[in-house]
């Protein structure tokens, strides 16, 4: 009898020490458009650490749960998190602005995100060229020709690529200069290309967080020319 009572007490203790309902890793429901991820870990006594994750960046804040609401001081905003009991979504409400919905990342969703990003990666592997300069009314570059050549190669990680850039400014003129750079870049689910590691002087072309996969695909693809020649 005593053993049975001790067993029940132990089970209740283990249940009480389980994860808080807010714990886990969450991603914006519209993750193909928004890169936001949130990592929530319990910190004891209804306290949590809420970390906002951007690719390569982390920003943690303290939060306290009371009556099913996790309150977090996000600096400019006071944030209220609740769990939607109907579908287990995490809802982030702001005291100013639109509520955002996050879904918990499980193994199936993680694989879906990885496959989606890997598709981006395969689309941009290769050599690309961009030409800039002063154009005439016909759209032809007449002076100040700048050529940017990109060589994008894969890495072992599904969301990481290596990018080498060669920039030729004022091509064909006395002031012609050539600069090269190389870096490791992260491809986000929304298609953004973000600098992870600078392996030298990295071109300003890739320091802009708004640069994305679609921008790359809009450049001239040297590989397509080579493929036609090989055929």
SSE layout and pairings?
Blueprint: H1 2-16, E1 24-28, E2 37-42, E3 47-54, E4 57-66, E5 69-73, E6 78-84, E7 89-94, E8 100-104, H2 107-124, E9 126-135, E10 141-154, E11 160-169, E12 177-187, E13 193-198, H3 213-217, E14 220-221, H4 222-230
Antiparallel strand pairs: 1-2, 1-8, 2-3, 3-4, 4-5, 5-6, 6-7, 7-8, 9-10, 9-14, 10-11, 11-12, 12-13
Detailed description of the structure:
The protein is of the alpha+beta class and 231 residues long. The protein has four helices and 14 strands. The N terminus and C terminus are likely disordered.
**Order of helical and strand elements:** HEEEEEEEEHEEEEEHEH
Strand content: over 45%
Strand order of the largest sheet: 1-2-3-4-5-6-7-8
How would you classify the helix and strand content by structural class?
alpha+beta
Q: Could you name the key traits of this structure?
A:
single chain, 231 residues, alpha+beta, eight-stranded antiparallel barrel, six-stranded antiparallel β-sheet, 4 helices, 14 strands, elongated, disordered N terminus
């Amino acid at each position: 009898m005593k053993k049975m009572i001790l067993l029940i007490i132990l089970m209740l203790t283990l249940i009480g020490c389980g994860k808080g309902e807010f714990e886990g890793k969450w991603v914006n429901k519209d993750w193909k458009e928004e890169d936001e991820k949130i990592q929530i870990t319990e910190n004891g006594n209804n306290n949590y650490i809420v970390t906002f994750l951007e690719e390569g960046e982390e920003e943690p804040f303290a939060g306290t749960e009371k009556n099913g609401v996790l309150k977090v001081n996000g600096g400019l905003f006071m944030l209220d998190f609740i769990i939607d009991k109907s579908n287990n979504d995490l809802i982030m409400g702001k005291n100013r602005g639109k509520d955002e919905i996050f879904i918990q990342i499980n193994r199936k969703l993680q694989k879906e995100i990885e496959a989606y990003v890997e598709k981006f990666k395969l689309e941009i592997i290769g050599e690309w060229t961009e030409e800039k300069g002063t154009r005439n009314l016909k759209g032809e570059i007449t002076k100040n020709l700048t050529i940017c050549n990109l060589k994008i190669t894969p890495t072992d990680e599904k969301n990481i690529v290596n990018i080498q850039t060669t920039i030729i400014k004022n091509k064909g003129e006395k002031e012609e200069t050539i600069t090269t750079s190389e870096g490791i870049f992260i491809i986000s689910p929304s298609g953004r290309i973000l600098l992870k590691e600078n392996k030298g002087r990295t071109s300003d072309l890739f320091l802009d967080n708004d640069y994305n996969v679609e921008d790359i695909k809009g450049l001239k693809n040297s590989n397509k020319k080579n493929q036609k020649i090989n055929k």
